[in-house]
Amino acid sequence: MIQLTKRTEYGLIALVHLADAALTGRDGAFVSVREIAEHYPVPKRLLAEVLKDLARAELVESARGKDGGYTLRRQPDQITLAEVVAALEGRPSISSCETAERSPSSSNCGLEPVCPIRSPLHRVREGIWGLMERTTLRSLAQTSSLVQAGPLLQPKALT
Amino acid sequence: MIQLTKRTEYGLIALVHLADAALTGRDGAFVSVREIAEHYPVPKRLLAEVLKDLARAELVESARGKDGGYTLRRQPDQITLAEVVAALEGRPSISSCETAERSPSSSNCGLEPVCPIRSPLHRVREGIWGLMERTTLRSLAQTSSLVQAGPLLQPKALT
DNA sequence: TCAAATAGCACGAAATCCGTGCGGATTGCT
DNA sequence: AGCAATCCGCACGGATTTCGTGCTATTTGA
To answer: For chain A, which has fewer Cβ within 10 Å, the N-terminal or C-terminal residue?
Structure first.
């Protein structure tokens, strides 16, 4: 399926929110999960889980305790969509061998020169990957900041 | 998840095989599912299901009865990866509204001018889609035809 | 009449993803 | 010291999607 996971979408929403917060005044301040979840129809608990993963991937910095939260570790134009996807879904299987058209005769497709030929689908995925590497958080944020006007409550699962 | 389905991979394998068959001599002849399945480690039954879908999408033409099978309906450079994906997984949700960042205040996001702004992820997916529209079956086939040398039996599920 | 092949439908199994529960550790404020 | 807010880590049940298969009907050529 060519579709981002909910987790990734939630993560992007959070990152865009952090980018906005950094640009509009309070730079360096930590934004809590609660605040982010109050603005979008997103399950708070899952958002927290996603932000933890983003922290592990060192895309955001976390602070515990009161007044804690998350903040971007780099500038919005220094964070790519590819990094976010890799952090939350794992980098798609581009590097090693694919599933299909794999002949059982070849051992394990180490570094043989035939390997890139055998799976032309790799190039397609690399194209997609390159597209995401060229898409920065900044380019995502600047267009969506217009709609993040009013806070809205969570319609479902307001845990 | 940014990954093609097994069904799509199987479909592409079949289409590449059909393209090869059309180019190397026997043009117009119908290739059976059995023959295709004998060349790749692919569950025959599922391959048949996939080819049926491709026939419904009018990408291939089918012939029943003895000496029946499938054949390409167009030239390999006239069939795009996007068409195959659309036929086998359904066109990804680019046209209408996405899941995330959808404010409950807006009714159903019909044709309002704010809609393309609200989901910057749409542009990413359109980019991916465009990439697949520009990838023809021919470009996939010409690189992989080198490896389709010897027929190989199915390692698993040789039904 | 028979064998080979596609067409159609539907079903169980497997994998993935979603969302949540629970306890622990930190930190700032009173 | 105590308390409340917040992140951290692990793990689990349920929902959704996908995979693969079974069965039967229909068509076609020998």
So the answer is: C
Give the model confidence (pLDDT) of B30-41 as tens digits: 999 999 999 888
Taking residue B42's Cβ as centre, other Cβ atoms within 10 Å add up to 23
Q: What is the C-alpha to C-alpha distance for residues A137 and A77, in angstroms, rounded to an integer?
A: 6
Judged by a CB distance cut-off of 8 A, whether residue A146 touches chain B is yes
Architecture of domain A6-144: Orthogonal Bundle (1.10)
Chain A residues within an 8 Å CB radius of B2:
2-4, 85, 89, 92, 125, 128, 132
Architecture of domain B6-91+136-144: Orthogonal Bundle (1.10)
Say if B103 is an interface residue toward chain A (CB within 8 Å).
yes
- The C-alpha angle B27, B29, B34, rounded to 5 degrees, equals 125
Closest residue in A to B5 (Cα) is: A1
Task: Give contacts of A100 with chain B, Cβ < 8 Å.
Answer: 6, 9-10, 12-13, 40, 42
